[in-house]
Amino acid sequence: MAKRPLTFDAEALRSFVTGIELGSFVLAAERLGRSTSAISAQLKKLEQQAGAALVQKSGRHLALTERGEILLGYARRLLSLNDEACAAMTASAVGGEVRLGLQEDFGEVLLPAILGKFARAHPNVQISASVSRNLPLLTGIKQNELDLALSWQGDDSTPFSQPLGRLPLRWIGDAQFDVNALLDSNTPLPLLVFDAPCIMRNAATAALDRAGIPWRIAFTSRSLGGIWAAATAGLGITLRTEMGMPNSLRHLEASSLPEMGDIGIVLHQSNCQLTPATEYLQQTIRELFPLQFSR
After folding, report:
1. Which CATH architecture has domain 94-164+264-293?
2. How far apart are CA 185 and CA 254, in angstroms?
3. Spatial separation of the C-alpha atoms in residues 229 and 167, rounded to whole Å
4. Is 166 in a helix, a strand, or coil?
5. Nearest residue to 81 (alpha-carbon basis) of 163, 4, 13
6. Is the dihedral of CA 22, 23, 24, 25 positive or negative?
7. pLDDT tens string 26-47
8. What is the pLDDT of residues 44-59, one digit of tens each?
9. Fold of 170-260
10. Which pLDDT value is given to residue 92?
């Protein structure tokens, strides 16, 4: 008789995934409304089923073992399907409209996945999506013109917001763009930026000033597509994340360019109490973001 395959416990998988995403199983316990000891017991059960340790300490942080990294990918997919099935069972009871705003960086990559998954589970909900920049998005939330908004983390915020994760900031340009030659000759770096005000524009110019690297604004645009087109044409370099970056561009590595760290992604909501439709969309976004990071 063939040996029956293991059936992983969904709640244990959820605790594992949440702990890794938050970088702490104590925070995972708070997020999931469980005790720390219950989360630890679930992790131990998963490790027994997997036959290996899943996490290990790396300084003050958690690090995945090789087996843990393998299980994490499967766990996210299993939970996503589980939650989609759960949402589908209640789809007939959910209707209305949700007004969603998001940064252009997220639109091309994330919006199709969000709309596809959400529409399958909640066919009676109408989504009104607007792609914009940080300031209009936060204004829309504060003035109750948007229900949810996905933005970069900056100095300004809203009363009801939650961090979703962080992405590294990169100097990006065409593969043939010789940034080292410009740096060696002390020629001002041509920057491709959004019209002011812009979080990444400010971060780029401030970092270059601190490093003593001369720069000039070579191209400004109101759209991310314009920035990518200018970079592809070799007009200069830009500071962005790699989310939505065209395949024709690359992360420019030069020892003289300042390291830029990372930037947070924040999900804002207009009210503390959400409609059922808005709450389901919020859950969908929270589930899909880690999947984008893991690619």
Report:
1. 3-Layer(aba) Sandwich (3.40)
2. 14
3. 22
4. strand
5. 13
6. positive
7. 888 888 888 989 988 988 988 8
8. 988 888 888 988 877 7
9. D-Maltodextrin-Binding Protein; domain 2 (3.40.190)
10. 56
